[in-house]
Amino acid sequence: MAPLWGSSWSSTWGSLSGYRAVQNSEQNTIPGSATDSSHLKPSIGQILSSKRVRYATFSLAAVGIFLLGFRNYDRLPSIESLRSGGAAAVAGANSNCPPAVVPAFEDAQVNWSQFAYTQYVTNAAYLCNSVMIFETLSRLGSKADRVMMYPENMMDAGETNPTSEEARLLAKARDEYKVKLVPVEIKRRAGGDATWAESFTKLLAFNQTQYTRVLNVDSDSTILQTMDELFLMPPCPVAMPRAYWLFPDNKILSSQLMLVQPSAVEFSRIMEKMESAGRNDYDMEIVNQLYADSAMILPHRPYDLLTGEFRGDNHQNYLGTDQEEWDPVAIYNEAKFLHFSDWPVPKPWIPMTDSMRQDKQPKCETKNGQEDCSARELWNGFYNDFTERRARVCNAGRKARR
């Protein structure tokens, strides 16, 4: 193909602009052409108003948009996500989430029914833990909905005369704590352990598209204060705190608390990652693979405190500075979410021997010449309170250890 040059370029431009080059013989017939040829050249306005130029511009723009969409097809909002809310769809396509700042609000002006705390259940032990979480939310006066995802074989969601212990607890959550029960099929991976099934069920929070936002908290935890304000954070597909006990060497997200904007787009990405996950990839690995660099970072203080922090000697990672003095009472009073993570101390529903308690409980300190055992008292209180509430809420018969 010959290069577009000389007369070829003139004729090509003329075909695009709607004007053709004037030949020499025609120039001689136009008065004044020797001294003024401006009337032979189309103006910018004439060129831009030409239909052929407009068509060519629109065509190029359409091709550019198509190529851009093709390269980012996995981030485009689906029809379902657009129907469920424009803000959520836009946030899902944008990896640059704004800072985690709670805006000023008045309870009466917030439609709390569009938000929900979610829990997942895979066995009887975690069922009790989840019911305890919802009992706390009810007692604290949380305004958002409460949703429990549980194995469909435990009970029919509309059961009115439960007979099994699991069904009794599910009915209690529904009737006393206003929990919406969502039966789900617990999926299991060939050759995998129960942890994979738990991880899968936990990530179903991304599929609760009847809500604008859901807050999923691990049930091996205690909610100390309501966290309704988190639902009003700026839009972002997912928000989580950092695993502060690994920071700053590893900037890993903690999945113990996840603020999620459910959408078909994000759930599809979650499912794809679950299907291709390695044998040792669970919920925490999956959310980090997808959102490590794009999630909104919630402050771990006060939203993700570990019980093991009260047994530690160095609190700089939690405090965020080496200039602040560790005050266990002040930290407890400001904390809203406490996670039982205390290796080698067992989870709070598993019996702890007296010898282990004596050996692992926090040490008393000497401050201003006086013995301070506040960290020890708080730590023991966490485990005693969990045991007592478990007996009260779930009728668990194990006597609280002092």
Q: Your description of this structure?
A:
The N terminus and C terminus are likely disordered. The chain has a single domain, classed as Spore Coat Polysaccharide Biosynthesis Protein SpsA, Chain A (Alpha-Beta Complex). Helix content is 39%, strand content 12%. It has 402 residues and is an alpha/beta fold. The chain is built from 16 helices and twelve strands. The longest helix is centred in the first third of the chain and has 21 residues.
Could you outline the blueprint of secondary structure elements for this entry?
Elements: H1 6-17, H2 24-27, H3 44-49, H4 51-71, H5 79-84, H6 86-92, E1 115-120, H7 124-140, E2 145-151, H8 165-176, E3 179-184, H9 194-202, E4 213-217, E5 221-223, E6 238-241, E7 257-260, H10 264-275, H11 283-291, E8 296-298, H12 300-303, E9 305-306, H13 316-319, H14 328-334, E10 337-339, H15 354-360, E11 365-367, E12 370-372, H16 374-394
CATH class: Alpha Beta
CATH H-level homologous superfamily name:
Spore Coat Polysaccharide Biosynthesis Protein SpsA, Chain A
CATH architectural category: Alpha-Beta Complex
**Count of DSSP helices?**
16
How would you summarize this macromolecular structure in one to three sentences?
By secondary structure, the protein is α/β, with parallel strands linked by helices.
Descriptive keywords:
disordered N terminus; 12 strands; 402 residues; Spore Coat Polysaccharide Biosynthesis Protein SpsA, Chain A; 12% strand; globular; 7-stranded mixed beta sheet; 16 helices
